[in-house]
Amino acid sequence: MTCKGICTRYKAQKPVGTGRYASGQRRCQICEIFIKWEGLWCPCCGYRLRTKPRNLKYKAKLRARVEADAAASMKPQISVTPEAIAISAESSEFVSTTLKTAVSEGWTKTKTVAELRKSEGMTIKKAKELVKEAFGVKSKPIPIKA
Questions:
Q1: pTM for this entry
Q2: Which range marks the domain in which residue 26 is found?
Q3: Which residue, of 44, 57, 86, 117, has the greatest Cβ tally within 10 A?
Q4: Residue 72 lies in a domain
């Protein structure tokens, strides 16, 4: 297995600001070249391509970059509408009637929160706050005589 010169067609330029392996380049040890190739084996000599650095310092850099990219992609992309922020019991007649109905008919807090979220499209936090206010008025506990 020797270099046949085919790999020069796939030669990769050194990226600016990132590492070679982080940008998707692979290294062939036989051809002694970094190539832009998606396969596992060198198209030129058939030798297995290296996809990770051998040096401990560069391994740590690559690991940190991969973890940072994974954390960035895991962040949920939330688009909040101004209507969802401004909802309060006073601002929406439907919300206040729903809360009154929930209290009078004995709905659970969970059911009330689900109903508010479904009908008004508000956040869980805001719905829980409104339900807590509505259900906040509690009667005195009845003492049990033993």
A1: 0.47
A2: 1-52
A3: 44
A4: no
Residue 28's pLDDT is 92
How many domains are contained in the chain? 2
Tokens found for residue 134: 């509505």
116, 130 contact by CB (below 8 A):
yes
More confident residue, 69 or 43: 43
d(CA 28, CA 5): 12
- Per-residue confidence band for 27, with pLDDT thresholds at 50, 70 and 90: very high
Instruction: Return mean pLDDT, the chain.
Output: 78
Please identify which residue in the block is written with the tokens 């809360």. Answer: 99
Q: How many CA atoms lie within 13 A of 36 on its CB side?
A: 8
Whether residue 108 lies inside any domain: the answer is: yes
